[in-house]
Amino acid sequence: MTTMLCSLVWPVSLLLLAAAPPAVPFNLETRLPLVKVGADGVYFGFSIAEHQVVEAVTNTSSVYNGTWMLVGAPLDQNLQPNTSKSGALWKCPMTTLTDDCVQVVTDGLRNIKGVYHLKKHIESLNLMPPGNDEIKDGQWMGVTVRSQGRGGKVLVCAHRYMNKGADFQWGRGLCYTLTQYLDFDKYYDPCKGRPVARAHEDYGYCQAGTSGVLTDSEEPLVAIGSPGPYTWRGAIFVNSISDDYLTKLKVTFHTPITEKDSPVDKYAYLGMSVTAGNFYSEKVGFAAGAPRDNGTGRVMLVPEVRDGVNPMEVRAQLSGEQFASSFGYELAAADINGDKRSDLLVGAPFYYSRDAGGAVYVYVNTPEYCLHCSKPQRLTGKPESRFGFSIARLGDLNQDGFEDVAIGAPYEGKGAVYVYLGSDKGLITDPAQVIRAEALARVQPATFGYSLSGGIDMDLNGYPDLMVGAYDADTAVLLMARPIIGILTYVRPEQNLKNIDPLKKGCSKYPNRDYTCFTFETCFDIESGGRSYGGKHELTLKYRLEAETFSGRKFSRVWFGAADDERPSFVEKNMKWKPARGITCSEEVVSVKENTRDIQSPIVFKLSYSLIQEEPEAIIAGEELPSVDRYPILNQQEAVKVFQVAFQKDCGDNEVCESNLEVQAELHLKPVARQQWELLLGELEEVVVNVTIYNHGESAYESQLFLTHPSGLSYIGTGIEEKSLFSCKPFNSTLVACSIGNPFKKGRKQLRLRFDPKELSDRDLQLEFTVSANSTSEDIGQQSPLVLRANVVKKAELSIKGLARPEQVFYGGAVKGESAIRFRDEVGTRVLHTYQVFNSGPWKVNQLEVHIDWPYQVANTKPQGKWLLYLDEKPTVESIGGGECRMGYGQVNPLNLTARAGAEDPFDNLILESPPETILFNSRRKRDTEAVLRPEAITDKEGRRRSVISSVSFKNKLKKNDFKMLILSAELRCWHRQVLHVCLHHQKPAQKH
């Protein structure tokens, strides 16, 4: 056995939700459905088949005689006596009634000896009860229903049919084939007589009939899926159903089954689905699904049956891509590209993602008959919809030469069916029609789409119809296909659809217009003079032409008509077509809106025609079957046309504008390294970025320059000379966008972008600018964004000046002790110290502390020294930014002395007009705290030395732009008892900032 394993590789995922609008109309008529309803809870519609007898019985006037809707109801009551809920097959005629289905005789033809009555008319038989070796209750007759096609046989199965004995019950499964007239033909019990000693590890629970298919090949075959043999590894069994006993194959063929030979593992469920087609040659082969194999599911591909080759060869395998997706749960074969080779659709209804539920994989056959060589398309449905639970070949629904398919999603709402059309390139991934249960007339059955059958023209109008089952509602629905009228559409003249010059006003029809305009004609004709629908009467068509907004664009760049007030983006009207008239046209005038920037991408138009006709009257049960031929539909592939009108472009012969943009930029600052500069805060009023843009290629349309900058910089504008050449606007607080040309032809452009740095904070240590350019043309250069960096330097030039008033103090008079002093003027002469701090910039100082030391006490041998300079009041600070002095406890007027009114004159203003010197403070001096300082010895007449104690400090926030100086005033007194004469001079204090 030669086996080839093909793992699934899927490059593109199509989500149906995005492609399909809420309701997509095509030619399956949802307003006139034929509805058949079974008994409650019998799963009527679990399996269905369209069926048609070629030679109709003559004793009836119905034109639909011999056309049946076959419906399986696996929990229904069978006609066979002594059975309970063993399942049934129903045949339903083409009528408007919902309850006129008739049960087909399936069971009860086996006599007590186990022999079946063959080819007898059922009316002449008395049905037999089940034999003693059978269990028919709960056998699920009707779980599988298949028709061979027009004039072919029918397959019906009961996969839970059981064979019993005194000490065993084996679940073998059972199938019948019926003639085209639905008479009994043959029975198939493929596991009968096979080993059961190991029960489920042998053939004890075959469950034959879980799936099945009939072929219409030269040697007609039946394939029966049996997922149970050998611990549910599974298999398919193939028999000939030819009526020519002499030439037919008389062997039951099967896929490899035993542990040694099987291509699958335990519990793979091979045979859960099966289909047939010419996958490997013109002869029919098979595909069988094993939805639990390998966790993801697999499909086995089997070539044609060959006499003497048993078990059959498994030539290749297709593997699922997602765990528990049940890849292979459903299968269908169809020639979707018209190459006479069967293509394969594989359902994985439990596939899941955040946005999808259920998937169908489409394998297109190759000229070498290699299904597993092609990468499949993957179609997905809505979450939890079980899209792909059922798949059916529809035949050629729109008469274009390619077979079409239907896919069920029974749990999307109440259920939905998606219709896809074939084409020479394979399956068209946008559904041509989405049929939802909620949109049906008459009924809205739950689980609509659980089963599907198609490919037969049930109403004899030349178009195949679709049958849909909804087992949970015990309902089957037939949707008849409406005739399709072929329509040919044109847009002319072709030269008017290209090279629209956006700089040229007017057009040939309106040369004096103030806007760019152009004209064209839209035309249509009914194919073959209307013979596809009879061509005996005129048609009324609704015409609609829309510009750009149909694709989701909010605004269109153009408007229709000569008026300038409403500016509609679409035009809509009704048009008449008569058989003798032929081509019908409409001239359109289109104007381009002023200030349109996008003049490179073409303007896209959507032209659509639809038939205007009366709504069909609702079906009334019992009345004559309505004809859908009265409600034809236009061929949607021609009735809807999308075309483009192109602007004149300065591009190459390939109509692709291949620009090559290059950006060079630098900061107008002091450079410190490559692409790096230095900004001294406060020194410049503006930060300027100089940019040069080159286009080394073809014209760049809608070209723009983008510059991102720190949020602390605010955009001012461009240079004066560039204002008329460029349009630059802040997009947000950190991005500036500039239009640099539409088009920007080959060449060079320069501009300056100016920014205000005043709002930069002390936390900004580096500025980063990113500069880039792009356009709607194809940029072949693909330059990376240019990054410019500037280190931020903060520098402040501080100076301080001090003044004492009076500068000299003379001591004299009687000396009093500390205890005798009550008033401040008794202490001694008053002295006012004034210190002024200046910030000459260029940057602000957020926090500044000025430390001032003065002779407070004279140290002696006692803990408390003797007073030298006695502080009357707490020092004051004069500054716009505010400030305060911080001192030790008890240093301001510790004796609580009072001032006598009129005892002393006030001091004059001591403000200094300018700093005498400039001192840069780039470091901080650490101050000793709470210690007696001895900076300088002072000796009196008696030779005694005096010391100084640290006392007063303050801090203040200084800004260059909101002050000129800071004034600190401290009022002190010289204690006469300690010093006879002291000359006070300015001493530089210690600062920190």
From TrEMBL:
Topology class, membrane: Single-pass type I membrane protein
GO cellular component, one term: integrin complex
Domain Integrin alpha third immunoglobulin-like: 798-929
FG-GAP repeats: 313-372, 374-429, 433-496
GO MF annotations, alphabetized: integrin binding
SMART domains per UniProt: Int_alpha
Coiled coil: none
Main location: membrane
Keyword annotations from UniProtKB, A to Z: Cell adhesion, Glycoprotein, Integrin, Membrane, Receptor, Repeat, Signal, Transmembrane, Transmembrane helix
Protein family according to the UniProt entry: Belongs to the integrin alpha chain family.
Name under which the protein is recorded: Integrin alpha-2 domain-containing protein
Native source species: Cloeon dipterum
